[in-house]
Amino acid sequence: MVKLGNFLFRYRNVLFPLFYVLLFIPSMPLIRAQWFMIAAGFIVALAGQTIRVMTIGLKYIIRGGSKRRVFARDLVTDGMFSHCRNPLYVGNIILLVGLGIMANSVLFAIAVLPLFLITYMAIVRAEEAYLLDKFGDAYREYMHEVNRWVPDLRGIVETFRSMSFHWKRVIIREYNTSYIWMTGAVLIVMVKLARMPDDSLFHQLLPCFILTLIVLLTLYFTVRYLKKSKRLRDT
Fold first, then answer.
1. What average pLDDT score do residues 200-208 get?
2. I need a labelling partner for 103 at 20 to 30 A (CA). Which of 16, 42, 54, 162 fits?
3. 222-231 per-position pLDDT tens digit
4. CATH topology for 2-165?
């Protein structure tokens, strides 16, 4: 599992966008209540985004590795990392699950989602092996005290009271992920409406969809410009 995780970590920038693309493959619906699935999925995805915002706002760690390999300078155990060892990954998983619910796809549920979960499980095992080798007993104790996947929210209020929350860091570090999943959500709804036997609602709402996509794209490039020009800093 560790070898697989190291391999997947190297190519995750190719694999993860692919999982999002697979959301749009035509498939039988899980249930007929399409609008319920769209609403429920959006709420779930928003929960995943919330977890990521909470994590990054309190304490950010670089998950990009070094030279496409697992890497960490320090062992981070505060902020949301005191409640879950992998809160950013948990947020990512919940995000994709939410989009999968919106897509209401049997194919995604039985094939794509399991592959996505296996990918993250392998990557986490590879990271744990690296951290154990680098930090030894300190990480072993951390593993014993904090869950790998399921957040333990006891003491979460005290965590927020004892730390500063950095909104600028959230905007700078999270604008790309936010843009991708929100745009994906809009496109999923558009595709669902366009595939309905009566596509009149799609044509009625098309101007709203286009406007929403333009607003999201404008916000994306605005934050990107502010970040690249260093007019918006996370410190």
1. 94
2. 54
3. 999 999 998 8
4. Four Helix Bundle (Hemerythrin (Met), subunit A) (1.20.120)
